[in-house]
Predict the structure.
Amino acid sequence: MKKTTLLATAAALGLGVSPAMAQDYPTQPINMVVPFAAGGPTDTVTRLVAQAMSRELGQQVVVENVGGAGGTLGAARVAQANPDGYTLLLHHIGMSTAPTLYRELPFDPLTDFEYVGLVTEVPMVFVGRNDLEVDTLEDAIAWIKEEGENVMYANAGIGAASHLCGLLFMSEIDTPMTTIPYQGTGPAITDLMGGQVDFLCDQTTNTTNQIRDGSIKPFAVTIPDRLDSLPDVPTTAESSLPGFEITIWHGIYAPSGTPDEVVERLTAALQVALQDETVAERFADLGTAPSPQEDATPEALRAKVESEIELWRPLIEAAGVYAN
């Protein structure tokens, strides 16, 4: 049954959320869907935020992993859920790349959701196998330009953060590499450590430990300032790519039609959660930080989704990669 039909049925039966009910919200546990498997970076971020929001809301925020189809299955479930504030979605940059990657998308990121706020923006880091004879990003780019498609670039699959970073990087240096897609970040990093592939660009949440233990060679982080967690790794701006910046941002969404009062309550709870010391400390361990209060808003999240759709559409179309 389509979402519009569900909403019409709910309205006819008087099952919508009345103003009084919205004021009392929440009165039961809240389900927060993660559209990926447990244990990944988005799942880790969600569980930290859900725990802190539970304390502020006075009701448990239960995390549910609904993986599959690059995150679109979980997002579609929330888009079609009852808009009562008890089913939420925490998704990453995939909300802005899915409209181009998927020709048949079961939801519209711009119309099928209410926006709650940004949660965090995770930096990326460009890394290589340990026995590469180059040590700086500038030298790595020169080597890639010389070797061209002989260079093997790993990614975690179509639409993954590492795939997107690779697309942007190859566009920036105007040189294609041979891309090797894997079924997830784990096997991609394993082959990078084993020397089967040359490069990878992925989230600090996935690479920081391997950089620290010397298993892979870091070249640059993709943000304007160096990270406290990786102080010796230069930025792309310091490494001959001043315009190359990319983060994997995460945001919280509710189904379209969720009452304004409920969305406001959720946004307020998110802002409190992001100021929690434990959340900040755990985020720092992952190489990231909570979004500031001015970004943990519906307006900031909508602006991010809209701008990133426009950023990634031409890159994905030019690469000719589609998930279905």
